[in-house]
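User: Can you write out an input/output pair for a complex, sequences first and structure second?

Assistant: Here is one pair. Inputs:
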Amino acid sequence: MSKCGLLFSVYHNQLKRQVILMELLKERILKDGKVFPGNVLKVDRFLNHQVDVKLLNEIGKEFYRLFKDEGINKIFTIEASGIGIACIVAQYFDVPVVFAKKTLGKNISSDVYSTPITSFTHGRTYDVIVSQEFLHPEDKILIIDDFLAQGCALQGLINLIKSAGAEIAGAGIVIEKAFQQGDELIRSPGIRVESLARVESMTDDGKITFCD
Ligand code: 5GP
């Protein structure tokens, strides 16, 4: 096969794998996702409580494919649901994971970066912290999280990275609820966000539709 033919074949196979994963993820959301009042999509059967590691592995490969040329040296996420996903993704990049911690403590020590985040699912505001030891100006960071909704969690992580003077390569999100404000808040200032499944709408009786 010619070099051109080989490149086309590799590209074609990668594209095929991407389409298969996205379809697999959508099917899984339709099969196992449950819609709760307040626009909450529960995916406890495969992502947020019981974890389908095989599916997560494919998700890790896909985020690697999307961001592999960005010179990423660190994956950044927020506890708790982001950690498992970030760890799988990090294996493909062969880089460490740092996760931001939620705290309700009043005394925030001086050796951390901190920012307030309002939790979409719990409705409360936490101070979220990361040790200054783990984020540096020379870092190029990929943010990973399970959901993008109003964008508050992602914005908080972006604030922490900016406090450290590090560079943001982009964000990898497993499920984006595209009908909420996160899309506008994060993408319009120019942050690259790659979401593997984009939910267009959800109804209280459980009907979920996806963006094309
Ligand atoms: P945002 O800050 O973008 O409003 O919400 C993102 C965070 O809230 C994610 O870290 C995720 O854990 C949680 N979240 C937002 N929407 C949902 C949802 O519909 N289902 C679940 N399980 N978590 C959500």
